[in-house]
Specification:
265 residues, alpha+beta, 5 helices, two-stranded antiparallel sheet, Photosynthetic Reaction Center, Chain H, domain 2, 9 strands, 20% helix
Length: 265
């Protein structure tokens, strides 16, 4: 007759707990290894035009793409990241794997390198409570105004890094959630075939001089300010347009002039 405690007589609880920990830890490593493959996998060879290319996935395989449900767009969510087609825009500097890419045209207009932007949703960001477009011009932001003690940039000249006047500030765009100025709407004069139009310039990349009534944009020349990316709706900006404009002017710190591209020393 078997004793009632035959299992614990040969297999103690501490040993069972140890094996359970080993299984848990192995599962944790497997899970984390899959999750860290969400960026960069499967590996794509730079020789993708050659036959017999092997797709590098490793073990384990990358997990399926995540879809996040946004608060403002429950029926859309966030689809898997879209990659931009950079064919004809950039090319490897040298013919060896891992060589840096160099722009083939105007990197600020093409949005590459330091002027890159994310493929965000082409819809406006919304406020949490009222579900209204978050970043709008002051002319449609009811209840918002510029503090009297702060300089009013409207009517000030906008000067590029070359010292040439690019236009005049027509309006300021405010963030309804953060309650500060995010963009300056500038009336620009025609430059090198670019017609007269209005463009948006991020306030984080300008310097406002209230005494001289001047706004200086160090990251772009006057004609580059005039050729900045536009928006579809004159009274709201989408997430994609916002990122595109920010990338354009930020990239000018490197691409505005050929001298900025070279080494410092």
């Amino acid at each position: 007759m078997q004793p009632s405690g035959f299992l614990t007589s040969t297999f103690d609880v501490a040993e069972l707990a140890l094996y359970a920990f080993f299984l848990f830890f192995a599962g944790l490593i497997y899970y984390l290894r899959r999750e860290d493959k969400r960026e960069g996998y499967p590996l794509v060879s730079e020789r993708s035009d050659r036959a017999g290319r092997v797709t590098v996935r490793g073990f384990p395989n990358p997990p399926p793409p995540k879809v996040f449900i946004k608060h403002h767009h429950e029926d859309e969510g966030i689809p898997p990241r879209r990659e931009r087609d950079l064919t004809g825009i950039v090319a490897p500097a040298e013919n060896w794997p891992g060589a840096p890419f160099v722009p083939l045209g105007d990197p600020m207009q093409d949005g590459v390198g330091s002027a890159s932007y994310a493929q965000r949703a082409d819809v406006p960001d919304l406020t949490f409570d009222d579900q209204l477009p978050k970043i709008v011009p002051l002319r449609v932001a009811n209840g918002y105004y510029l503090a009297p003690e702060d300089p009013d940039p409207r009517g000030m000249e906008v000067v590029g890094a070359d010292g040439i006047v690019a236009g005049t500030v027509h309006e300021v765009w405010v963030d309804r959630s953060e309650t500060f100025i995010r963009l300056l709407e500038v009336d620009v004069a025609p430059f090198l075939g670019v017609p007269q139009r209005r463009v948006l310039v991020p306030t984080q990349l300008v310097r406002i001089d209230p005494k001289r009534r001047r706004v200086t944009v160090k990251s772009a020349l006057a004609h580059q300010i005039a050729a900045a990316p536009g928006i579809k709706n004159p009274d709201e900006i989408t997430l994609l347009e916002e990122d595109r404009i920010a990338g354009y002017f930020a990239g000018g710190h490197l691409y505005a002039t050929p001298k900025r591209l070279g080494p410092v020393l």
